[in-house]
Amino acid sequence: MDSAAWGEQVARHSRVFKPAGLGPFPVALILHGCGGKTPFLEDYARTAVAAGWAAVVVDSFKPRGLSPLDAKLTVCTGLRVRGGRRAADLFAMLAWLDGQAWADPSQVFLAGWSHGGWTIMDAYALGERAAAITGLADAAPERLRRAVKGALLVYPFAGYPALTTRHGWGEGAPPVWSVVAGKDQVVGWKAPKLALDRLARDGLVVDQMFLPDATHAFDDNKANDPRARYRPDLFAEVQTYFGGALKACA
Q: What is the pTM of this model?
């Protein structure tokens, strides 16, 4: 399958938020965690709209026929749709944006939470292997380099088999904003920091927000992991951080 065809399928299940007016608007692509698309991400989409960006909350599971239970049992456990494979959705949505009159496909920001962060990181780390791993014949790192102006990674999964710490992102990668939770019981804080430090050593501009008292999914008031502790104050702080990153890339 090519990127445009898969993009149509993914977009059919995703939700678009736009500022007032006709555009074209810069676009933030928002990628959910391994449990699937949840309502708190729509608040981040509204943050993007307030900063003058359109936002697309991308659903990676419905196009693949995965229910929330399927996701918990197979994606969250690493059996299916690992970050490199899911990176197909990024290339596909970039192709889809080319055909949207309201979108400026040359001004894109990527934002990912947990598994979504892994997806963004692997999309870059795959390099020339992108087509082979994603299954999209036209997936190529040049598309990311041309379109993407920045990335936000919120408690991203970065342990094995994620690729960033071992391979980096190659040439032309964008500036990175990141949020790491000090009491993250799912992905920890050491592996994400190792990956982010690798990017910084490679010369990328990397901003790291470390929240020492935050758990995984601290910004999701409906998190299904009983270890997660919702922190509305930190949620607001990260929304402000996201808005600042978007303004810096405008």
A: 0.98
Residue type, 123: A
Total Cβ atoms within 10 A of residue 77: 10
For 56, phi and psi rounded to 5 degrees?
A: -125, 115
**What is the spatial distance between Cα 48 and Cα 44, in angstroms, rounded to a whole number?**
6
CB 121 within 8 A of CB 166: no
Q: Where are the domains of the chain?
A: 3-249
Q: Which residue has 């026929």 as its token pair?
A: 65
pLDDT tens digit string along 157-200? 999 999 999 999 999 999 999 999 999 999 999 999 999 999 99
| Residues 188/160, Cβ–Cβ less than 8 Å | no
Beta bridge partners of 56: 16, 29
Q: CA 117 to CA 160: how far, in whole Å?
A: 14
Distance (Å, rounded) from C-alpha 152 to C-alpha 41?
Answer: 13
How far is 108 from 92, CA to CA, in rounded Å? Answer: 13
Q: Which fold has domain 3-249?
A: Rossmann fold (3.40.50)
